[in-house]
Amino acid sequence: MTVTVTVKIYAYVSAYDGPREISVELPEDVAEAVNQLLAGPCSKLNMDWGSVNHLLINGRNYHLAVAEKTKLKDGDILSFVSMFCGG
Amino acid sequence: MNDYYGYTGKTLTVNLTTGTWMTGILPQELAVNFLGGKGFGAQILFDRLNSGVDPLSQENIMVFATGPLTGTPAPGSSRTVMSTKSPLTGLWLDSNCGGFFGPELKQAGFDILIIEGRAPEPVYILIENDRVEIRPAGDLWGQDTFKITEKLKARHGSRHMTACIGPAGEKMAPIAGIVSEYRTFARGGGGAVMGSKNLKAIAVKGNKDIKLNDPDIFMRVLKEVYDRLRTVSAIGGGRTRYGTNVILSSVNEAGIHPVRNFQKAVFDGRGRINEKELAEKYYVKNRACFSCPISCSKASKVAAGKYEGSFNEGPEYENVWAFGAQCGNSEMGAIIQAEYLCDKYGIDSISAGNITGFAMECFEKGLITEKEIGFSLKFGDDEAMLKFVELLGRREGIGELFSNGVASAAEEIGKGSGYFAIHVKGMELPAYDPRGVQGMGLAYATSDRGGCHLRAFSVGAEVLSPAGKMDPLGTDKKAEFIKNNQDLFAVIDSSGLCLFAASSMSLEFIVKLMEAATGIKDFGSTEEVMKIGERVYNQTRMFNVREGADRRLDTLPGRLLSEAMPDGPAQGHVVQLEPMLNEYYQLRGWDQKGIPDSATLERLKI
Amino acid sequence: MIKINNKSCTGCRICEIVCSMHHNRVVNSGKARVRVVTKWPWEDTPNLCRQCPKPKCVGSCSKGALTITAGHPVLDAGRCDKCLSCVEACPYDAIFTDPESGLPIPCDTCDGEYNCSQWCPNKVIEVID
Questions:
Q1: What pLDDT does B272 receive?
Q2: Of the given ranges (A66-80, B298-312, C3-17, C51-65), which has the lowest mean pLDDT?
Q3: Cβ A59–B241 below 8 Å, yes or no?
Q4: pLDDT by residue (tens digit) across B65-81?
Q5: Does the beta-carbon distance from A85 to B460 stay under 8 Å?
Q6: Domain match, B171 and B223 both
Q7: Final residue of a domain: which of B391, B421, B451?
Q8: Range of C44's domain?
Q9: Tag placement on chain A: N or C end, fewer CB within 10 Å?
Q10: Contact (Cβ atoms closer than 8 angstroms) between residue A61 and residue B463
């Protein structure tokens, strides 16, 4: 079962020159969806994604979403965000 | 004979009442036990002030203290801390500024500048190496900070570094800051204290050596640090390109960007107010503080539209919030113009924006009238917003009441406005809604100077928690994080470094630099240095305890404790402060009233 | 030869800092042979010896204390009487004086290392050959 979600890539990866917002079809399962993203449409991000710490699913940390067994639905927003350092 | 390295080993005390000044030797124990900057301020203020001093009286003192790394080649070594008793909160205040003032003070030969008393007439202080003069400032009084900075440079030299107050400080507005080379000692009313002393400005120039104990080791560590900086993208890359607004969209995405006086935390104006828009349409240049490769500061200009021609250095993330989402405003040009006004009049922009949003809510609820204000003041009305900021900066009309801060204004207005006066201990809260990041609720409640996000900053760690260890909506593990972060930031604020540079370096490198700079072995140990941080944070706590503060003031506004977040990722949440606070006091070695117990004080030797 | 890309200058003064560190092992902008000049509100430029093909500084020295090596001026302190004619003569105001010794301190390129250029985070001082 696949859903259509919006993937946003925000400011921090300044060297990245790909599209900053894409609409993409992904599986419902969050972990599977992210694997597909990083192997496919977001492979250009080209960073060490082993820990996937910069991804929010509808504003919620990816790891928490996986632990909570969140299922993606149509219209969800996945955002790769910047580090929040200092002030 | 001066055996100091890193430090200059000298202090300067200026007494404005008698119009005299004297130099002193930096006590070894002070350096070794309190490090510098905030630490120096904490020890000196506790030692020299009695409780109950009126912050705007001549009894109050101002301590401008550099850190051992200020003025050295360390990245971000620009910082100086001004410590005093706050007229906004009646409690401890340390206010931090980058730019060039601190390094120049050090180059003039001084670690610390203490200002005491009150001048009979407006004056400014001129420091040129060993020569110190208290000069009449009658011709400068009444002028804005941009004019004063220009005048002093024209009069004394373009490389003289200045710190000055604007009309707000002269009128002793509790939200007045001290502007220095386009940066500000902004929060808590330092500008008002300076104004109460009839001190308009300080101008300093030096050309003495800042010596390092081991320059070879220092430069070797520095090369390593620079290599790391180049590879960390968010710090080196993102922040350089976007400034502190690199987090703007992300904070909104996480649902913690306060909107319309913390009524919600996802801003619908984001389409027009985002970091990409800022970088493409408004930023014209990067600027940096002394010795900083990150250059997070931006110069912005409005090239077209309603506010064409407006320009200023900034706007930082906090300002984009303060005059953006906080006021329901999506007109970017107005944000730049608002920040310009804050700098010009010399007021803290975080407080100013927060206060404006509060006033807007009061207006919309009918608690203050158009007649009283002089104009309609609705959320989203950018022109009214700017008119109001002018009133705050000039401390005129209704601005006189509101420039005392939201706590005072709410007390005067009554009618339940205290519930949505968003401050802690009198200091207005900045741009993160703690209902969506619970640890910040604890951080705000236990910050030593009131509602501040820079005593402990857990936003990144909570929202982007590696492996999901921390849940931003939960209270677990927050107390430990906030306690450790406060100690760490106390170290950084005492070292002379900027938080951004420091957080990209890690404490491991900071201590290596401090040891190489000063030759003090304990400074090379992260444990020993964290002990100093803990000591400093307990010292400022004791300052507040002595003024009568305890658990009752370690709280949050009614709205954040009882009004559920209406939408966004944090929907339904309020701040669950009690469990975090109980655990925090335990970890700190304070009793349940929030007072450091004797065992803790003994261990820390204060 | 050097080129100054001043539009990228952020005013950080890292060039000054590493200059005095290299020559004097201290931080002291008064001893740096490069100085950042700031024109309000935010135009920053580093100023240093441009290695003029026909150096006016050398010509101005009546004691022969300034000579050229590898394109840049070198001071023989023994011959210098601190008249500072070279400082006057430099069309770029790029010869500074040491605050302790009073001697002119023209840029010596750090013996070809150009520390300022190496450390500058924004590639403002460019060494071209």
A1: 66
A2: B298-312
A3: no
A4: 999 999 999 999 999 99
A5: yes
A6: no
A7: B421
A8: 2-127
A9: N
A10: yes
pLDDT of residue A13: 59
CB of B299 less than 8 A from some CB of C: yes
CATH number, domain at C61?
A: 3.30.70.20
Report CB contact under 8 Å: B210, C26: yes
What is the number of structural domains in chain B?
3
Based on the fold, state whether residues B595 and B470 are members of the same structural domain: yes
Burial class (CB in 10 A: 0-12, 13-18, 19+), B281: middle
Whole-model pTM? 0.96
List CB contacts (< 8 A) between B295 and chain C: 10, 12, 121-122
Handedness of CA B437, B441, B447, B453 (dihedral sign): positive
Residue A23 contacts B, CB cutoff 8 Å:
no
Q: Is A84 on the interface with B (CB under 8 A)?
A: yes
Rg (chain B; Cα; Å): 22
**pLDDT score of B23:** 98
Chain B residues with beta carbon closer than 8 angstroms to that of A17: none
Query: How much of chain A, in percent, has pLDDT values that exceed 90?
Result: 44
Start-to-end CA span in chain A (Å): 42
CA distance B575 to B10: 46
CB-CB neighbors (< 8 A) of A34 in chain B: none
Homologous superfamily in CATH for domain A2-80: Beta-grasp domain (3.10.20.30)
Q: Is residue B428 part of a domain?
A: no
For position A54, what pLDDT does the model report?
82
Would you call C91 an interface residue with chain B, using a CB distance cutoff of 8 Å?
Answer: no
Predicted confidence band at A87 (pLDDT cuts at 50, 70, 90)?
very low
Residue ranges of chain B with pLDDT lower than 70?
A: 1-2, 231-238, 269-272
Q: What is the pLDDT of residues B148-165, one digit of tens each?
A: 999 999 999 999 999 999
Which residues, including other chains, have CB under 8 Å from residue B8's CB and lie 6 or more apart? B2, B26, B106, B109, B110, B111, B208, B210
Complex ipTM: 0.96
* Structural domain that includes position B535: 438-604
Question: In chain C, which residues have their Cβ closer than 8 Å to the Cβ of B239?
Answer: none
- The tokens for A46 are 């080209």
Q: Which chain B residues have a beta carbon less than 8 Å from that of A82?
A: 234, 238, 246-247, 250
What residues are paired with B14 via a beta bridge?
B21, B115
| B185 DSSP assignment | E
Name B93's bridge partners: B84
Report the pLDDT value the prediction gives residue B202, as an integer from 0 to 100: 98
Q: For the segment A4-15, what is each residue's pLDDT rounded down to a tens digit? A: 999 988 765 556
Note the helical H segments in B292-369.
317-322, 332-345, 349-364
